[in-house]
Specification:
transmembrane; Rossmann fold; 4 strands; elongated; PF01976 protein; binds iron/sulfur cluster; 56% helix; transmembrane helix; DUF116; membrane; alpha/beta; 2 domains
């Protein structure tokens, strides 16, 4: 569940900081050339207008209202630029960083879903975090997912079946570095990445040249232990990227 109010609070604080900063700068530069002060005011005003534009688009996307693909694309670029200051302000006022990350992933996914693709199965790579494997299972599935004995105690067996059914490349990565290496080695045209809010956000920000659909894992046992995935969400993502729906 995405809480847009927390995002709006953070944006209001960011705009307030910008306005306050401009007032202070204006007081200090009153003795300097008039043109310099004017330039600073125009710059800050432009930034505030861009932030307000981005906030309106973000609000509409989160509320599942119709937004054009090109507006979403522009907004995603702005959200990328604003991401670090927004995360900083949110955590400073006690808003969990994951609330902002969820919004970023939603903006990314909505933009991808606003386009049309027609990839072959083998062009798509599915990246799964290692914590999906049952903690007590000793089989080494990170190098080769087929090593899973399909006992059904965790979602790895579902993924093996999905791989057999679709011919999709499915990899289990032990961390962000290995995930990046898998992408570089396999050169996919699209990625379906399953991870927590933090890893998904950094992965999406790293892979700007190809579509990366983010799917959140479920963590009923806390972070990084026996996590779960909704296999239907993965199947829906595959159907969309291969134009089968
Ligand atoms: S489904 Fe596969 S990976 Fe999961 S516990 Fe069973 S054998 Fe291990």
């Amino acid at each position: 569940m995405i809480d847009i109010k927390k995002y709006l609070t953070t944006i209001c604080i960011l705009v307030a900081i910008l306005i306050l900063g401009t007032v202070i700068v204006n007081i200090f530069i009153s003795s300097l050339a008039h043109i310099f002060g004017l330039l600073i005011n125009i710059l800050v005003l432009s930034i505030i207008i861009i932030i307000i534009f981005s906030t309106i688009v973000t609000y509409n996307v989160i509320k599942d209202k119709k937004v054009s693909s090109s507006l979403m694309k522009i907004n995603l670029k702005i959200a990328n630029l604003l991401f670090n200051p927004v995360i900083f302000i949110a955590s400073s006022i006690g808003i969990p960083k994951n609330e902002i990350r969820k919004i970023f992933v939603k903006l990314n996914n909505s933009y991808i879903y606003s386009n049309e693709y027609n990839f072959n199965s083998e062009d798509i790579l599915i990246l799964i975090p290692h914590c999906i494997q049952k903690n007590s299972c000793k089989l080494k599935v990170t190098n080769k997912i087929e090593n899973c004995a399909k006992c059904g105690l965790c979602n790895v067996s579902d993924l093996v079946k999905l791989k057999e059914k679709t011919g999709m490349n499915v990899f289990i990565a032990t961390g962000g570095t290995l995930a990046r290496k898998i992408i570089i080695d396999n050169k996919p045209k699209a990625v379906i990445a399953v991870a927590c809010e933090r890893d998904l956000t950094s992965g999406i920000q790293d892979m700007k040249h190809i579509p990366v659909l983010g799917v959140f894992n479920k963590r009923p046992n806390g972070p990084c232990v026996d996590t779960l995935i909704d296999i239907h969400e993965i199947e829906n993502a595959i159907n969309f990227l291969t134009n089968k729906k």
